[in-house]
Amino acid sequence: MEFTVTSPIDGSVYATHRYHEWGEVEDMVEAGGKAFREWSERSAEERIAVLSKWVDTFSEQREELSRDLTFQMGRPCSEAPLEIDEFVARSRRVLELAPEVLADYDKRERGSLRHFISPEPLGLVLVQAGWNYPYIISAHSVLPALVSGNCVLLRHSSQTPSCSIHLEKSFLEAGGPPAVLQALRLNRANTERLHRHKGIAQVAVTGALPNTEPEPRSRRRRHIGLGLDLGGKDAAYIRPDADIARAAKELSRAAFGNAGQSCLGVEKIYVHKTCFSEFLEALKAEAEELKLGDPTEDETTLGPMVRFQAAVAVYDQVNSTIKQGAVPLLPNKPPERAYFYPQILTHVDHTMKIMAEETFGPAVGVMEVESDEQAVSLMNDSRYALGSSIWTAEPEFGLQLMKKVNTATSSVNHCDYLDPAIAFLGINGSPRGFTLSHFGFRMLTNNRSYWVGPHS
Predict the structure, then answer these.
(1) Domains detected in the chain
(2) Which residues have CB under 8 Å from 363's CB, separation 6+?
(3) Beta strands 424-425 and 2-6, pairing class
(4) Chain mean position to CA 203
(5) I need a surface site. Which of 100, 193, 347, 405 has the fewest CB within 10 A?
(6) Distance separating alpha carbons of residues 95 and 115, to the nearest angstrom
C-alpha cells in the first residue's frame, strides 16, 4: 500500500512511499535474526569501528539530509543542519561511552570462585522514532542498540519515512553488514502486530500511543522489554532573583523552538509575583522577534507545524483557554495552513487545558505565584512528570527546591537539553524505562551473571 508525505510548507505531496507488506516484514525479522548471530559475536571495538565510519559517512551528506528534513516536517533551513550535527555529535558520544558501559562489571572473588556480570545483546530491537527530531532520537536509541550487539528494525513516522531510509543507506555505504540496520515502513496495524512477533526482543517507542494500552498484554506475557516516551508538559519557575533576560531568552527557545513540537519543550511557566510583569515583557519581546514563514527562507526562525490539523488543535486549545478567562499577549490569529503564530497566555490556572494537557505547539501559559511553595505545589499538580526547571541566582537553593518537584529530569538555570551521558527518564504519564547513559544501555542488554571456579 502506498502512502504520501505531505509537506507542511505548502500542503503539497513531497514524496510517495510504500508500506511493507506483512510477508516482507517477516522476511526482515528473519534476516535481522540471522545477522544478529554474526554481529553480536563481534567485539565491541569492531562494532565501534563500523559505527564510527557510518557516522562519518552520514555527516558527509549533511546538506542533502537537512534539506529533506525541512520539506518533510517544516524545520527552518537555518536550523535543520543542526539536527544532523547533533546526530553526529551524540552518536560519537554514545560510541565513546560504549567500551566502559559494555565492560563486565560487579567483579568479585569468593575463595576460589570469581564472579562478574556481563552485558550481552538482546537480539532484534524495534525502534519507533518520532518525526519531531527524527535523527536525534535515532542517535539516542539506534546507536546504543547497535553498539551493544543488537540488530535494529527502524520505523520512523510516516511523516519522515526517508530518515530511516537515509540511515540504512549510509550504514551500508559505510560497510555495515546487511540486515543489521533495516528501514521499516509500516502502518499502525502491522506495527502493533510486530510488537507481538516472537522475533522482536525489545521495543523502543518515542511518541504518544493514543487509544492503545501502553503495555500490550501479549508483550507482557512474553516478558520483552518496552521503553516508552509518551510526552510531557514541562514547567519552569522564575524566582524573584532570577536573571530575567536570560530566563526569558532560554524559555522562549524551549517554548517556541521547533514550533513547540518537543517532548522537553516548556509549556507552562510560573513566575513569582515580584518579577511577573518584568518577565512577561521580556518573554513577549523574545516571541515578537520570531519570524514565522517559509522554512526554506534563511530569515525564517519559526516554521510551520507538522500538519494543518496539529495547528488547529493548538489553536483550539488556546481558544478554549481564552474562553475560560485567559488573556493572550500576542495576536490570536487562526493558523494559515500549518503555520501557527506563537502565543503567550496569562491569567491562567489549572482548570485550563493550556496548563493541564500537552500542547505540543508554540503556545505557553504563564501564571503568577505568591511563593516558592505555591510554585512547587503547582508544578507537582500534573499527570506528566518528564522535566522541569527553576531559575534563580542561588543554584544550590534552587537544587534543594527542585528536589521537592516530582519530575524525573530536573534543572536549575537550564532546560530542554539531552546529553547521551545523562539518563533520560520520566514518571507518571511520561516515559517508562530509560534512554541514554549506562541506564539506557542496560535496557538494550541482558545482564548475565557468571561464576567461574577452578577445575578441581
Answers:
(1) 2-230+432-452 (3.40.605.10), 234-418 (3.40.309.10)
(2) 260, 267, 314, 317, 318, 340, 342, 343, 344, 345, 354
(3) unpaired
(4) 15
(5) 100
(6) 27
Q: What is the side-by-side strand order in the sheet with 113-121? A: 105-110, 113-121, 445-452
Percent of the chain with pLDDT over 70: 90
- Integer Cα distance of 334 and 338 in angstroms: 10
Alpha-carbon span 42 to 45, nearest angstrom: 8
- Rounded Cα distance between 209 and 192, Å, is 11
Number of Cβ atoms within 10 Å of the Cβ of 351: 10
Bridge partners of 302, per DSSP, are 292
* pLDDT tens per residue, range 71-116: 999 999 999 999 999 999 999 999 999 999 999 999 999 999 999 9
Q: In 3-state terms, what secondary structure has residue 77? A: coil
Query: What pLDDT digit, counting tens, does each position of 11-68 carry?
Result: 999 999 999 999 999 999 999 999 999 999 999 999 999 999 999 999 999 999 999 9
Report helix, strand or coil for 403: coil
**Helix, coil or strand: residue 191:** helix
Going by C-beta distance under 8 Å and a sequence separation of 6 or more, which residues neighbour residue 101? Answer: 119, 438, 441
CA distance 172 to 394: 51
Render the burial of 217-254: b for 16+ CB within 10 Å, e for the rest: eebeeeebbbbbbbbbbbbbbbbeebebeebbbbbbeb
* Least confident range of 116-125, 213-222, 288-297: 213-222
pLDDT over threshold 80, residue 213: no
Strands (E), 261-408: 266-272, 327-328, 343-346, 363-369, 384-385, 387-391
pTM for the structure as a whole? 0.92
CA dihedral 9→13→14→16, nearest 10 degrees, is: 150
Categorize the per-residue pLDDT at 443 as very low, low, confident or very high, splitting at 50, 70 and 90: confident
Give the other-Cβ count within 10 Å of 7's Cβ. 21
**Residues 257, 302: Cα–Cα separation, whole Å:** 7
Residue of 191, 143, 184 whose CA lies nearest to 164: 184
